């Protein structure tokens, strides 16, 4: 909803990030403890209210429940893509990603499904955007 309502004229979504269910494993396992249930509820609400997408022009997203963080970065301003996976995340094909912009990392507070697909889609979208922006010469 957020991403779709903030698209520019003729801007198209190239890829929409998906949360991975592994994100809920830690709080679900800790439900045996006192703080586990509120933490699980918080994570479920965060999962439902946050969204991130790569459009044909920019990285766009929103996170937060009571407070809100917004990401809106043109694809040509992103220098690098990083992916981190724990052993459990590798087994279940999940991971955390970050983007480098002007020497600063934008860490997405989410565990995404199939981070390699995200990397490939980001690289393809960035290449197409730069080719369009610079007339095929970059």
Look at the helices and sheets and give the structural class: alpha+beta
> What is the CATH first-level class name?
Mainly Beta
Q: Work out the strand percent.
A: 25-35%
What is the molecular shape? globular
Low-confidence stretches: none
Number of strands: 8
SSE pattern: HEHHEEEEHEEEH
- Total helices: the number is 5
Widest beta sheet: strand line-up: 1-2-3-4
Structural Rg: 16 Å
What is the distance, rounded to the nearest whole angstrom, between the alpha carbons of the first and last residues? 33 Å
Shape-level CATH architecture: Roll
Write down the CATH topology: PH-domain like
Q: In this structure, how is the largest beta sheet organized?
A: 4 strands, antiparallel
- Percentage of residues in helical conformation: 25-40%
Indicate how many domains the architecture comprises: 1
Mean pLDDT: 83
